[in-house]
Fold this protein.
Amino acid sequence: MTKLRTALAAAAAALGLAALAAAPAQAAALPAFLAASQMPPSSTPWTATPVFAGVPENGGALCVPYKIPAQNTRYREFSTELDTNGVQITHVTRTEADAVKLVDTLRASLAGCGPLLERQNPGLDAVSAYHGKLAVEEGAWVYSLDTADPQIGNTDIHLFSVGRDGRTVTFVRWGQMGDLADAPLTAFRTTTKTAVNKLY
């Protein structure tokens, strides 16, 4: 009987240690990213880079440069053969309050992006628009930026979203030549929901 009790105690201790070892691994699980096929449909296939640590070389993305800290941040870039492009940036904050604050900062930058670009680039026409909140995890918000440069004669359209799941914030951008009428807004909303749901 003594040997049996000793064996049971050893097994219980081993199970306890295994549980303790698993807990940090679960807590340290990295957020998952969109696959190329989960970007809005395009006439040519999307390709995706590996997931990199930090932020893209431009400090983040159009409208939110340097708003997302490089530490605890990872990103993936997307492209097609027709110059349609995109990026997903995901940042894990220290606390949920920090995540709320970062979402607010990014949303303010996206909402004010058009007027800011016009001030920085005389002659540029830039219009930012808000396209509503999506019901996914702690929420996601969708914006667009429509720009036209009369001197060069080109127009570009970008769609953006910011979403949050607990302490994790993800930012998604899609862009191509054209205007808002050419943008796959409905499909981008689906992409955004997928991005937030896929984090964990």
Remarks:
- The chain is about 30% helix and 30% strand.
- Helices lie at 2-27, 96-111, 113-120, 185-198.
- The two ends are 46 Å apart (CA to CA).
